Amino acid sequence: MGIKIKKLKFKLSIFAGRSISFILKIFLKSSAGALPGKVAMSIYPDILKEVDQRCNKTVLITGTNGKTTTNNLLVHIVKGKYPLILSNLRGANMPQGLVSAFINDLEDGYDWGIFEVDEGSFKRVVRDLKPDYVVITNFFRDQLDRYGEIEKAFQDIYESLDPLDTTLILNADDPLVSNFKKLGKKNIFYGVLENQFCDSNQNVVETNFCPGCNEHLDYSYFNYGQLGGYSCAHCGFENPERKYEITDIQYQGENYRFVLNADQNLKDFEFKYGGIYTAVHLLPRLWKWALIWIRLPNELRVLNISWEGWKIL
Fold first, then answer.
1. In the prediction, which pLDDT does 32 show?
2. I want to staple 92 with a disulfide (CB 3.0 to 4.6 A). Which of 34, 150, 181, 196 is the partner?
3. Nearest CA to 99 among 111, 82, 87?
4. For residue 277, what are the domain limits?
5. Exposure of 4 by Cβ count < 10 A (0-12 exposed, 13-18 middle, 19+ buried)?
6. Are 269 and 310 in contact (CB under 8 A)?
7. CA dihedral angle for residue 282, residue 285, residue 290, residue 294, rounded to 10 degrees
8. CA atoms within 13 A on the CB side of 20
9. In sequence order, what E strands does the chain have?
10. How many CB atoms lie within 10 A of CB 268?
11. How far apart are CA 69 and CA 91, in angstroms?
């Protein structure tokens, strides 16, 4: 395909996508979602390569749970220093959703591209969009209706990451996620230390076998599901050392407090949720806040932040 034809198809795809977005927003009162991107990709299938070229740095966030919260929080933080950010903040996390975000926020270039990516679409996305950083949250079996066994989702992402020159930001409390360290990339680990809300017993099918040798995996505590403190007596597979970790978790009245140890830098956090039941169920997701202190080398130094419902003490 000649350069002139590519440019023409690109411009036509943007026009078509924006037209669909306009119709959905004005006449159907819809937030547009993925349809504009789907139309644009049907005209110019390589449009994600254009996104890749226009983003100076790119972060992809994938896994079963927590992608949208992590993505939106990270964008909120980074915008404190870098104004030009492209992101799929509405949660449309398949390739067409990323393209829709691009169409609706079109710029010649971006300081950062920050995207949540559906785990089943990760392979397709990284075919064209080469991330500088990949955040992997967790793997649970609540997506079986779409992807089959959890091992397949893991394997697809693992194989997609293998040839990439990228830094992995990994949940040390999930044995399936920490197993990505075998790729030999630069790894940054985060997690939640044992606390008063942990369980000592939990019947979770994901925890039956060690990802390293397929033998029985022992747990000293569970934060949630298969997230917790684990070790294998057979091969020595265990939680990797966390660079960012949450500890000293307390629930006082309606306020939820914890300490974040960020590379030996301690900070107190507080946020509000209405009830101990909610607080307990939010425990496994505390690792998201560790992203606040992940200093992507020489690029992110954003420390003064605010977010509805919580604050730094």
1. 64
2. 34
3. 87
4. 190-313
5. exposed
6. yes
7. -150
8. 18
9. 55-62, 85-87, 110-116, 133-136, 167-171, 186-192, 218-224, 227-231, 244-252, 255-262, 265-272, 310-312
10. 12
11. 9
**Number of domains forming the structure of the chain:** 1
| pTM, two decimal places | 0.86
Instruction: Tell me what pLDDT residue 273 has.
Output: 54
Per the listing, tokens 């606040």 go with 292
CA 41 from centre of chain: 24
Q: CA 196 → CA 33, 239, 299, 301, distances in Å? A: 41, 19, 36, 32
Phi, psi (rounded to 5 degrees) for 94: -95, 170
| Within a domain: 210 | yes
Has residue 37 got a pLDDT over 90?
A: yes
Greatest CA separation for the chain: 65
Distance between CA atoms of 9 and 255, rounded to whole angstroms? 53
**pLDDT, mean of residues 175-198:** 91
Residue with tokens 């307390």: 250
Is 242 inside any structural domain? Answer: yes
Residue whose pair of structure tokens reads 């039956």 in the numeric block: 208
In a domain, 268, yes or no: yes
Query: 203: Cβ–Cβ under 8 A, 6 or more apart, which residues?
Result: none
